[in-house]
Q: What sequence folds into this?
């Protein structure tokens, strides 16, 4: 996407690069500074770069609206409350718990939201106010106006993509990829974490773009699901050989097949009745 000048203008960053700039162990020790060491007085944040775009990825990357809000908050806090922060968005997707409230809070903090996808970022100044700045050229679809917004720094909310080596991983584990490149679940509603291969589960953003709460919420699945799955168990050995130890029961001892069944053997590992 050459129109946004990434790689051409040194003050155009991807979301991931800006995350690094904010990090206490990053190159600036967590301070938001331009390459010349000065603090920016205005920052533009461009949403949906490569997402929701038929020329790149049709899907929504789900996380960028919220990290754009997080960046707006951090900029105001770290650089100063008079710093101009302008978001260019198609529509705001603040779907999680407390997210809509955070969006409202950012508006109260003075962050600007312009509905429109910028067409270009240029350094060609048409007025003294644009001299030495990056100019974001966009339409405000709510006002029906064409805008030129001069800023010191630009953050591009780039699309979350499947990793390049996902086909190799899919081949090794015998799982499939969807048309978007992410690993394919067995069923979107009934088996969102299972795959077509028994014993192989999906957790996190390898299945599709996710924020941390959504990624973490998938974690219990591989741990609590029985292995082999009931479907596989029907076809494989249904009964463990005498004397074997079920590995999932902590502290279990081998029980001889001829040993009498005592009430305690009807207890599960936590001591409650099955
Ligand atoms: C710029 C940006 C800002 C974000 N900010 C937020 C935020 O503020 N809050 C929030 O909730 N979410 C945020 N997110 C989303 C968040 O990063 C993801 O939800 C989260 O990282 C998903 O976790 P994961 O474990 O599924 O994947 P990842 O964090 O990507 O972890 C996958 C790991 O697997 C490793 N790996 C991959 N393939 C292989 C392989 N073949 N062999 C060995 N290792 C492999 C990778 O190296 C990586 O370490 C942000 C995302 C971006 C891009
Ligand atoms: S989460 Fe927001 S910025 Fe990211 S692709 Fe979806 S709508 Fe665009």
A:
């Amino acid at each position: 996407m050459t129109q946004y000048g990434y790689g051409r203008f040194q003050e155009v960053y991807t979301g991931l690069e800006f995350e690094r700039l904010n990090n206490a162990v990053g190159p600036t020790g967590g301070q938001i500074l331009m390459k010349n060491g000065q603090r920016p007085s205005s920052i533009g944040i461009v949403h949906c770069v490569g997402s929701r775009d038929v020329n790149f990825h049709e899907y929504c990357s789900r996380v960028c609206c919220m990290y754009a809000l997080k960046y707006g908050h951090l900029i105001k806090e770290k650089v100063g409350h008079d710093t101009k922060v302008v978001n260019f968005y198609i529509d705001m997707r603040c779907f999680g718990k407390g997210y809509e409230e955070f969006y409202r809070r950012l508006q109260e903090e003075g962050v600007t939201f312009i509905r429109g996808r910028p067409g270009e970022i240029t350094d060609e100044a048409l007025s003294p106010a644009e001299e030495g700045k990056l100019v974001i050229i966009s339409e405000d679809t709510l006002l029906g106006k064409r805008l030129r917004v001069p800023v010191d720094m630009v953050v591009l909310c780039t699309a979350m993509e499947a990793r390049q080596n996902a086909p190799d991983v899919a081949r090794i584990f015998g799982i499939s990829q969807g048309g978007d490149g992410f690993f394919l679940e067995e069923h979107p509603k009934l088996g969102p974490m299972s795959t077509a291969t028994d014993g192989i589960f999906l957790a996190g953003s390898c299945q599709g773009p996710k924020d941390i709460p959504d990624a973490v919420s998938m974690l219990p699945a591989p741990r609590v699901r029985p292995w082999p799955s009931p479907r596989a168990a029907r076809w494989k050995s249904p009964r463990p050989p005498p004397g074997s130890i079920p590995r999932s029961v902590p502290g279990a001892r081998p029980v001889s097949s001829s040993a009498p069944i005592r009430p305690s053997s009807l207890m599960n590992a936590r001591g409650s009745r099955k």
Q: What stands out?
A: The helical segments are 15-22, 64-78, 99-108, 166-173, 212-217, 220-224, 230-235. The pocket of iron/sulfur cluster (ligand 2) is lined by residues 47-48, 51-52, 60-62, 64-65, 90, 93, 157 (CB under 6 Å).
